[in-house]
Amino acid sequence: MKTKTIAGLIGAIVTIALLSWVLKDVAFADVWQSARQANWLYLSIAVALATLSFAVRVPRWQILLHNDDGTTIPPLPLWHGIAIGFMANNLIPFRAGEVLRAIAINRLAKAGVASALSSLVAERLFDGITIIALMFVGLLTAGIPATAEINGFPVATLAGRLAIAPAILLLACIATLAFPELAKRIVRAVIPSPKFVERLSQFIDGIRAGLGALTSPTRVLGAAGWSIVHWLNNALAFYVAFKAFGIDVSFGGALLMQSLLVVLIAVPSTPGYFGVFESGIKAVLIVFGVDANTAVAYALTFHITTFIPITVLGLWSLSRTPITLTAASEAPSPPASR
């Protein structure tokens, strides 16, 4: 059986399993009623903020990727590449959006596909470090109810103890970047699988290659700054949507939920991340004492209303690019570095 077929089956199974859990013991009439009663002004603002998050990626990518002759790529081709990539991940299996994004910018600018892919690896690094840092903030400021428990253990106490984990991960990322060869030796010493070690070593090399374009502290700070803006804006979209549903959860809770979603989205699923997205939201909101029907209504409404704009914008960008949707669906899968 082909690898893509196996990956597709795994994704479908994961999606079905998670959606089954999300919809378990939920009253569909109450979910629908909760969605209908949402404050659509707040929801519209949340959707606008979520869509703005894609535009905020443009200046960061402009820092991470230049034309092969060293000149700056204009914002519009970068936007088209980003919109096409996320649209493809919403509609096409096997998460070909990142490869398609690299192909699109190659057609629209003078950047090589390999350079574009390296810049996306660097982008992942900045995203990962930022999410880890914001997870730390979220764990400390979310205000998890003292009554929330998992198997009789207070969630608030658990969150406080786990708050050190993001800090350790952040230091590990920085150390890996600063001492890549030492990191590879440690990986080889502690991981028995040569194949996994090789892939992890290639990922470290990819990060180094992607950061090769950052030749000055100013550019590093610029990329880091835009990463913070992006993820704070994205968390703000979740928080404003809380208001639309009358959900009393803090901005720290939105940061925590966002961090969990970033992790879950890396799990194999069908296009559009249906199932993994809703399960993450429901899991977090239930901890905060939100009714399951309201949590599911929030998750489905937010997902669908934010899914549509970037998909439509991506299709429009695709129409402005010498790439067809058929070719997009045949793009190879991205390197396994999530």
Can you walk through the features of this model?
With about 350 residues, this protein is mainly α. It has one domain (about 5-330). The protein is built from 15 helices and 2 strands. Strands 1-2 form a two-stranded antiparallel sheet. Helix 5 (about 95-110) packs across helix 6 (about 115-140), helix 6 crosses helix 10 (about 195-210) and helix 8 packs across helix 9 (about 180-190). The protein is globular, with a radius of gyration of 20 Å. The two termini are about 25 Å apart. The mean pLDDT is about 85.
For this entry, give a set of tags.
338 residues; globular; 15 helices; mainly alpha; 2 strands; two-stranded antiparallel sheet
Quick summary:
This protein has 338 residues and is mostly helical. The protein is built from 15 helices and two strands.
Average pLDDT value?
85
Number of DSSP-assigned strands? 2
Order of helices and strands: HHHHHHEEHHHHHHHHH
- The rounded distance between the terminal residues' Cα atoms is 24 Å
So what's the overall shape? globular
Decide which structural class fits the backbone. Answer: mainly alpha
Helical content band: over 70%
Radius of gyration: 20 Å
Q: How many separate structural domains?
A: 1
How many helices?
15
Q: pLDDT under 50 segments (min length 5)?
A: none
| Share in β-strands | under 5%
Strand order of the largest sheet: 1-2
Main β sheet profile: 2 strands, antiparallel
Walk me through the topology:
Layout: H1 3-23, H2 28-36, H3 40-64, H4 75-91, H5 97-108, H6 113-141, E1 149-150, E2 153-154, H7 155-162, H8 164-178, H9 180-190, H10 194-210, H11 217-244, H12 251-265, H13 276-287, H14 292-319, H15 325-329
Antiparallel strand pairs: 1-2
